[in-house]
């Protein structure tokens, strides 16, 4: 414990202590922009402390642990106090002397569906590969590569005039490349890449458009002929969420592959999330599990408990905690009366010869 301050004096809290007491907030800067009035703004992704999640602070939470959220916001640059470090588990373990503003983050918290996902699993998702010939673009090179014959001014007669003109043109080119809805980014050359000529000029033929549309990885903009099914799913989920005395309900959706079963359910859940944001629905937790991603059927207990609590344990211990949660009435954190919607895709993969 700290010693008591002298009479009439107060102990000054550090920025770290204010953050952990919810008096300050941490965020990751996603992008910067400048408004027409000259004010600089930043689009940020917020971090949250365990106390502000639906699960609350658990015994496994570290004192400096934060959760990255999917909540974005726009803040003015003048409201930023200073820089802090939010590290992965490995970086946090190897940190030595990085100051007091060092925090630990392993999970992302969904502020709408109140579940947790490991950042390592999110960051490992495949990304679109870049063209190796797609080199970083420098707008000034467009002018430096001009030949003497293409120059507007003669080098011997007016060298200063040519340099001044090119400098102004180069600045205009860079600022235009960083415009965002009529606004200018505060930092120059952010994310500028030269688009290859064959990509910029190529127009897809009707056959290429049809081929891209029929790929299994292509998601349609809308689900045709699924309005009736989606309405039934929505009614079922709403009744289960709004019923205070619901002891658990189950809806089994079957059909041949590729008919839009999973997509219909996810579309309904996105619609319900917008209703929750508007205050029309009570808070609930949504957990999505794909049987193809489970190394063994028993791991489903571990995945469910991890998404509920933000803590990874073995499947046997997770089964014990889940049994206490659902059977013995021992709730996880602050989720005392919060319904849980569980979506299990590829359910047949959970069936084994020795069913546990």
UniProtKB/TrEMBL annotation:
Q: What are the UniProt keywords, alphabetically? A: ATP-binding, DNA replication, DNA-binding, Nucleotide-binding, Nucleus
Instruction: State whether keyword Lipoprotein applies.
Output: no
**Pfam family membership, one:** AAA_22
GO cellular component, alphabetical, reads:
nuclear origin of replication recognition complex
Q: Which SUPFAM superfamilies does the entry mention?
A: P-loop containing nucleoside triphosphate hydrolases (SSF52540)
Region entry Disordered: which residue ranges?
A: 124-167
The principal location of this protein is nucleus
UniProt GO molecular function: ATP binding; ATP hydrolysis activity; chromatin binding; DNA replication origin binding
Which BP terms does GO give this entry?
DNA replication initiation; mitotic DNA replication checkpoint signaling
Report biased composition (Acidic residues) as residue ranges: 124-134, 145-158
Record's InterPro entries?
AAA_22, BAH_dom, BAH_sf, ORC1/CDC6, P-loop_NTPase
Domain BAH, which positions? 3-120
Q: Which domain of life does this protein belong to? A: Eukaryota
- Which cell locations does it reside in? Nucleus
Is Protein biosynthesis set as a keyword in this record? Answer: no
Instruction: State the oligomer form and interacting partners.
Output: Component of the origin recognition complex (ORC) composed of at least ORC1, ORC2, ORC3, ORC4, ORC5 and ORC6. ORC is regulated in a cell-cycle and development dependent manner. It is sequentially assembled at the exit from anaphase of mitosis and disassembled as cells enter S phase. Binds unmodified and methylated histone H3.
Q: What does this protein do?
A: Component of the origin recognition complex (ORC) that binds origins of replication. DNA-binding is ATP-dependent, however specific DNA sequences that define origins of replication have not been identified so far. ORC is required to assemble the pre-replication complex necessary to initiate DNA replication.
Q: Which family does it belong to?
A: Belongs to the CDC6/cdc18 family. Belongs to the ORC1 family.
Q: Which PANTHER family match?
A: CELL DIVISION CONTROL PROTEIN 6-RELATED (PTHR10763), ORIGIN RECOGNITION COMPLEX SUBUNIT 1 (PTHR10763:SF23)
- Give the protein name, as stated in the record: Origin recognition complex subunit 1
Annotated organism of origin: Aegilops tauschii subsp. strangulata
Phylogenetic lineage: Eukaryota, Viridiplantae, Streptophyta, Embryophyta, Tracheophyta
């Amino acid at each position: 414990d700290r010693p008591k301050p002298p009479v009439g004096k107060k102990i000054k809290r550090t920025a770290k202590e204010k953050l952990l007491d919810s008096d300050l907030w941490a965020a990751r800067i996603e992008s910067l922009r400048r408004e027409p009035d000259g004010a600089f703004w930043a689009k940020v992704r917020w971090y949250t402390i365990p106390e502000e999640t639906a699960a609350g602070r658990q015994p496994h939470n570290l004192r400096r642990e934060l959760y990255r959220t999917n909540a974005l916001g726009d803040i003015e640059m003048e409201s930023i106090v200073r820089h802090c470090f939010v590290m992965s588990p490995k970086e946090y373990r190897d940190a030595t002397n990085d100051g007091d503003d060092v925090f630990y983050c392993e999970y992302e918290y969904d502020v709408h569906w109140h579940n947790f996902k490991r950042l390592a699993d999110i960051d490992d998702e495949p990304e679109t590969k870049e063209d190796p010939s797609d080199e970083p673009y420098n707008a000034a090179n467009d002018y430096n590569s001009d030949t003497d014959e293409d120059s507007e001014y003669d080098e011997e007669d007016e060298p200063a005039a040519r340099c001044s003109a090119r400098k102004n043109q180069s600045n205009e080119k860079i600022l235009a490349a960083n415009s965002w809805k009529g606004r200018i980014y505060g930092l120059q050359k952010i994310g500028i890449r030269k688009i290859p000529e064959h990509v910029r000029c190529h127009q897809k033929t009707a056959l290429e458009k049809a081929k891209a549309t029929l790929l299994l990885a292509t998601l349609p903009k809308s689900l045709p002929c699924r309005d009736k099914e989606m309405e039934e799913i929505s009614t079922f989920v709403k009744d289960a969420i709004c019923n205070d005395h619901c002891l658990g309900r189950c809806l089994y959706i079957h059909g041949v592959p590729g008919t839009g079963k999973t997509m219909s359910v996810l579309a309904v859940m996105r619609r319900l999330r917008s209703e929750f944001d508007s205050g029309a629905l009570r808070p609930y937790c949504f957990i999505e599990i794909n049987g193809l991603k489970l190394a063994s059927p028993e791991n489903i207990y571990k995945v469910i408990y991890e998404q509920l609590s933000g803590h990874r344990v073995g499947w046997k211990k997770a089964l014990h905690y889940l049994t206490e949660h659902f059977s013995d009435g021992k709730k996880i954190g602050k989720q005392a009366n919060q319904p849980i919607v569980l979506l299990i895709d590829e359910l047949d993969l959970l069936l084994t010869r020795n069913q546990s």
